[in-house]
Write a structure and sequence with these properties.
Strand content: 35-45%
Distance between the termini: 10 Å
Length: 42
Amino acid sequence: MISVPVVIEGRAKDIRLPDEVQAFVIPITWKEFKSYLVVCLE
């Protein structure tokens, strides 16, 4: 099952993920912009 993507703004400490799922953080840099794609697999 693929769930609907969610956009979250804020600091990393504000994001809570379930302990029982595996999460991957993929850094993305484009020109002077930085973002992170977080993918959780259950």
